[in-house]
Design a protein that fits this description.
This protein has 200 residues and is an alpha+beta fold. The protein is built from nine helices and five strands, in the order H-H-E-H-H-H-E-H-H-E-H-E-E-H. Helix 2 runs antiparallel to helix 7.
């Protein structure tokens, strides 16, 4: 598929068919994710892959009894995804990388970072996953983990304390009968309103 087609066709898919994701497709999604840029080539990302019905069910079981989530209609569609990927970022990887001799910030002071590049770089890896899914003829959606469930997600799947799950990517074959998503209800903001050349 041409790159421009991948960009134009990418959307957040919120309902999936029962067809499984081929291991080769999942491997390509993950191998492209690690091609994302990272500050100092820190590569402070890891990906927790849940690709069996039992593993995926364990994730959704965390939210059983959460009235807010169970009342949310889109969640019923998201539960149909055969694969969930939890991208995790590591602040420690960046602080230690920039304390190495070629960088020279020996104090590992977080204040040196104007923005949390560990999250930003992992988010770029997520975008590569979303685009690769499109190129593979699949659908995907990135969504967040509610703060009140973060600790339980970490405990359930053994995520180490120095790694932060920044959300979840669902992957599967799109069900065209699912939710149409925000672009069907909201117009895309025109380029002239978001691009500022030379001065805001």
């Amino acid at each position: 598929m041409e790159f421009q087609d991948v960009v134009r066709r990418r959307r957040m898919v919120r309902r999936y068919t029962a067809d499984p994701v081929a291991p080769t497709q999942l491997d390509r999604i993950l191998s492209n994710a690690v091609r994302a840029p990272s500050a100092g080539f820190s590569q402070g990302w890891s990906f927790l892959v849940l690709d069996t019905p039992e593993q995926v069910a364990r994730y959704w079981d965390i939210f059983t009894g959460d009235a807010e989530w169970e009342a949310d209609g889109w969640l019923r569609g998201m539960r149909t995804a055969p694969v969930l990927i939890l991208p995790c970022s590591s602040k420690a990887a960046y602080l230690s990388r920039y304390a190495e001799p070629d960088k020279g910030w020996t104090d590992q002071d977080e204040a040196r970072w104007p923005m949390p590049f560990w999250h930003m770089d992992t988010a770029m890896a997520v975008l590569l996953m979303l685009q690769t899914a499109v190129d593979e003829g699949l659908g995907a959606c990135y969504f967040g983990i509610p703060p009140n469930h973060d600790a339980q997600v970490r405990e359930t799947f053994g995520i180490p304390p120095d790694w932060d799950p920044i959300g979840v990517v669902s992957v599967g074959h799109p069900d065209t009968g699912g939710a149409q998503g925000s672009p069907r209800r909201r117009a895309r903001i025109p380029m002239e309103q978001v691009v500022h050349r030379g001065h805001w």
